[in-house]
């Protein structure tokens, strides 16, 4: 027993502090909870060379902690599939930089939940109808039947649903629906994010930013501190970490950071994006550049979202 303990102690001494730090515990829902035991300083590895080198070096930095609120949007598939995995993935990423993020779920009242859900189902239906109008369905079904003559009526209807769904997810959002979505997210924000330093992560099936061109991917809003994470990104790696770098780098709630609002060329940077389809899961890289780190620590989303651990 004693020799095992000695070996263990030796291993702990040899490991850099960031690796030996075992802080926080995993709660019942799978999300990590950080308490009082956080280290004051840490060693972290950052990308310090520009592309194509993108070399990493160790820096010693103070630790930071903070709380981020999130909400599962009523009527979205996140109600069945918990976002805990996505949140835990982001916590693991930020832990490497000695930034300890607690997450708190926000709930709407039953009445409000019902209202938001109703609005969302209607919005989705309007989107479907505007991309594939009802009058096109008959012709589409006829074509599918000609291509698959052996399908039963039931299977054919399922194929029709699937086909319409595929067309809709590839389409861009019409302007009217785009602005209605944006307004809804804004009003949700006002309702829920007040006690969260006006910052909120929304888990919803698709997300639309005011960019101002309609985009449907997971994203961070420019004009207020809101991140939307879409349903396909349940299987993406570091998606929430990527958006949180955009968010934490903001100097003001309505403005993007100099480097952290942009995407990057280093292949090992979490801020590099080569994605072209919002509905296909995507794996972001695992590292952070020194510029992005500095900007996050300096700006802290414009609202002191993280604080130095003392
Ligand atoms: Zn991005």
Structural summary, described in words:
The protein is an alpha/beta fold and 310 residues long. It has two domains: 18-109 and 193-308, Collagenase (Catalytic Domain) (3-Layer(aba) Sandwich), CATH 3.40.390; 112-170, no CATH class. The chain is 39% helix and 16% strand. The protein contains nine helices and ten strands. The strands form three sheets. Strands 5, 6, 7, 8, 9 and 10 form a six-stranded mixed beta sheet that branches. A two-stranded antiparallel ribbon has the order 1-2. Strands 3-4 form a two-stranded antiparallel sheet. α3 (84-95) packs across α8 (239-248), α5 packs across α6 (153-170) and α8 crosses α9. The longest helix is centred in the middle third of the chain and has 22 residues, at 110-131. It starts with a helix and ends with a strand. Zinc ion is lined by residues 242, 246, 263, 273. Residues 242, 246, 263, 273 line the site of zinc ion.
């Amino acid at each position: 027993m004693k020799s095992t303990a000695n070996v263990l102690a030796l291993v702990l001494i040899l490991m850099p502090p960031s690796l030996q730090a075992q802080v926080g515990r995993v709660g019942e829902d799978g999300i990590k909870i950080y308490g009082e035991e956080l280290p004051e300083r840490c060693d972290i590895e950052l990308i310090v060379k520009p592309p194509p080198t993108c070399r990493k070096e160790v820096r010693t930095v103070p630790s930071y902690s903070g709380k981020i609120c999130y909400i599962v949007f009523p009527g979205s598939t996140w109600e069945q599939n918990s976002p805990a995995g996505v949140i835990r993935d982001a916590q693991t990423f930020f832990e490497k930089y000695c930034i300890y993020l607690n997450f708190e779920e926000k709930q709407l009242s039953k009445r409000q939940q019902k209202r938001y859900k109703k609005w969302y189902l209607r919005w989705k239906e309007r989107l479907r109808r505007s991309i594939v109008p009802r009058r096109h369905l008959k012709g589409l079904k006829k074509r599918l039947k000609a291509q698959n003559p052996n399908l039963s009526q039931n299977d054919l209807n399922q194929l029709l649903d699937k086909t319409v769904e595929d067309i809709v997810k590839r389409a861009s959002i019409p302007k009217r629906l785009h602005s209605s979505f944006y307004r809804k997210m804004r009003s949700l924000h006002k309702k829920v994010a007040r006690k969260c330093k006006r910052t909120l992560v929304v888990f919803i099936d698709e997300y639309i930013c005011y960019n101002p061109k309609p985009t449907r991917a997971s994203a961070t809003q420019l004009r207020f501190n809101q991140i939307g994470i879409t349903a396909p990104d349940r299987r993406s790696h570091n998606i929430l970490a990527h958006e949180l770098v955009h968010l934490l780098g903001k100097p003001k709630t309505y403005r993007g950071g100099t480097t952290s609002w942009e995407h990057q060329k280093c292949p090992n940077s979490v801020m590099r994006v080569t994605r072209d389809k919002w509905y296909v899961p995507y794996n972001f890289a695992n590292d952070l550049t020194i510029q992005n780190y500095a900007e996050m620590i300096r700006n802290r989303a414009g609202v002191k979202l993280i604080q130095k651990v003392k």
